[in-house]
Structure formats: structure tokens, C-alpha cells
Amino acid sequence: MSSRVRYGSLPFNEQITFFRNKLNVPTEIWSDLWRHGHNSGFSVAGAMKDDLLNDFRRAVDAAIADGKSLTWFKKEFNTIVARNGWEHTGKASWRAKIIFDTNMRQSYNAGRYEQLQRFEYWRYAHGDSRYPRELHLKWHDTLLPKSDPWWQTHFVSNGWGCKCRIYGVSQSEFERKGLSTTSRPNDGLRDWEDKTTGEIHQIPKGIDPGFDYIPQRGTNLIKQQEIAKRKAVVYQAPERLVPSAFSTAQGVNVDGLNQVLSAISKTSSAPQVAKLGEFFKRHDVKSVFVKQAEMGHNNKGAKDIQQAVQEYLKPSEFSPKYFYTIPGYRKTRGFTSKYFDHVVVKVANSTKLAKVDVDEVRQLVTLAHEFYKRGKTEYSMSHIVRTYGESKDHSGTLVTWLHEIGHQVHFKAGGGAAPNIPGLTRYSGANSAEWHAEHFAAWVLNRNALAEFNTDIANYFDKLVEQAIANGANHG
What is the pTM of this model? Predict the structure, then answer.
């Protein structure tokens, strides 16, 4: 249905890649993994078991890739601790916050380091820490060439809870504004003793132990090899053709969505799924799965999830409720808008993407064609699978999601009028937008079957999707 209605703009690909390239390193205390070791190793102090560390890894990965909140991570932390019987030091809330903040901030800064390479100069900006560090305030507005050695030890973050940032300044901006570089701060070094080993480390003043390094990816390969010799349980992050999703139903999440698409990609629909993946790389279209009670603008359920949805979508204006609520929500399966960069799909508590029958949803296109030939054209692709399929609403949720994504593909391709070709379903005859959405779902699920219905429609979507991808070449 078409409607007319954590750290900046995270996540971004450089940040996600940095985190996923790490190896798991069981450690007893935080200093076991020192300085550049954090570039290539993931650890939680005291977490020695592989299953425990991987559970934390999955949770942090989801937080980074999906924009999950600290509140969500604290709940996951408690679940992981209970499942593994882990006895940790410190209060659960404090440990969860440390893990969350450190990994989110350092992976963000690693991604920023990659992005900042295109700027000739870097500027240090003090953050809004509750208790500002004196030297961090002193370094505010330090402007130096990116090649200056000072950045090797002072690239953010520079301590626990440090919220300082680095901003890039291009050569043209430098000249246009008449800027000049500042002197390199030289505040000296201090000795810090590792109480466990007795080793003395010299650390720049103003920087916490272990933070005097650049959290960049693609560096320190020798250190990574050393870590691998000690313990190298390689974390396998789930392949994410769809980068993120927000859901209030336990059985519907981004991993479940990607697992279904992965299964479809093992069929003749592999080229279409691959093109869908290219579309998501070009356009940051997000997915919101909410229950019916959460889709009414004045409903308590909508108010309860407002902050969480806002954290995920990060709307620049208007109340975030206008981005996931709609009049007539009781009859709506899903909706989006040409003004959105997301789609909304209705789910139930009982909905589980794990129960999607891939063979059934692919046969859906052939079944729709059969109804058409008998002169009994069905209402919609979603209606067919929900009414006649064994997997009912589970598969129906996937089909509705593809329908709404079809709207976004149509919008991103320019929103042109549909060709004068009768559609597979009655809903496709409602207007040009629904014609595109219905047949896009069919194109992804089973292009071959769509071509048997009408070759021109199949060929049309080959070109439309390519155009949507091409239009996103400068997106972001």
C-alpha cells in the first residue's frame, strides 16, 4: 500500500565492516587486549567461553548494524548472562553500558577514520562528556594535517566515555576560509603500571591506558596473526542483504529476513535477489515491523515504541509517530510513501519468519497466474498466500514486505506510470503504484513464472530495478 504521507547517522558500512572483521579473543581482564589489539580482536573482560563471547558478539553486531539502543542491549546482556551462567564483576547495568558504549564508539571512530582519508586536514572537537577532561578541552579546535604524527596517539576515542570527535577539512575549505594549522599539542607522557603484569607503559597525558592508538581497520596484521595463534574463534556475522530492520515481534528480525532471502537466492531467483541487494546498497531503505495496536497514531502501543522507532529511523522533522502510524490501520497490511526512506509492515506476536515456506511463496506467482487464466483473479499476492498457503501470515509478511519495497523501488526509479498491461491481481489494477508493487514482489519471488504470465512485465522490471539502482549512485 502506498501512502502520501547512536552516534550521528549510524550505522554506516565502514563501521559495520570494522567490527565484523574482528576475531574473538577470550580475556580475563581488559588489559589482556592492548592498544592496537582492539583493531583486530573482540573481547569482554572475563568472558572466556566461546559460546559466551559469540553471544555478546551477535548482540553488539546487531546494535551496530541495526541501530539498537542501550536499553535493548542491557536486556540482551541479562539474557546472555542467564543463558551462559556467567558470573561477572560489577553491576549488570554498568557492564552492559561499558560493552555497548566502547564498541559502538570505537567502531564508529574506525569507520570515521576510513571516511576522513579524503580530507587533507583534521580538526579535533571536544565532546559533551559529563565530566570534561582538561586536556581534551585544551585540544579542542586543534587543526593539523591528517599525516601529522599527533593523530597516531590522539585519534578519538581517547578514554572511557570520551565523546570527542574528529572532523575533516578539505583543501578547498581550508583555503576558502583562510584557515591555518595550529601548533601540535605536546603535553608529555606519563608512566602507567599494569598491576597484573607489572609492566610499565608510557602513555600520552590526557589519554586513558590502551586508548593511544587509531581504531582503524586494515592495520596491524601482525598483531592479528598473534591473536589468531592464541585463540581464533572466528565470528561469522550473518550475511545481510538487507542491512537493518526494526521489529516489535520476536519472530521477525533482520536475520530472519535475510535467511529467507538467502534461501530464495538458492533458486532460479538468485539474480533478482542479488539485484535487491544492490538496491539496498544504493538506497538506505529501512524496514519497520510493528503490531496492529502500534499502528494507530493515538494508540498507547504507538506511544510506547515512539522513542525506539525514532532511534532507528532518526527522522529529521515531525513526530516519529507519523512515520509508522496510519489511519485505517486495522485494514492495512503495510504502507510507505515517496517521502519515506523506509517501509512499514504489520506483524503479529505469533509471526515468525522462520516459518516462511520458500517453495510456497515462489509457487505463489504461478498460482496467481492460474487464477487469472480461470477468470477468477485474486485480490493480491499477499491475500493468496495468507488464504491458500500452509504458511499463512508467516509467508504473507514476507510478501507484504516485498510489496512495500516494490513501492520504494518504483519511487527511486522515478515513479513513472505503469505500462498499459493487465496485472496478475485485482490490487495491481488499483493504480500505477500498486501495479508496480504487486509485480515487483512477483519479480523477486519468481521472475520465470512472471515471464510466463507476461514477458513484457518481467523485462520491464529488469530495467526498472536497474534504473532504481543507477539513481542511487550518489545516494547517501
Answer: 0.60
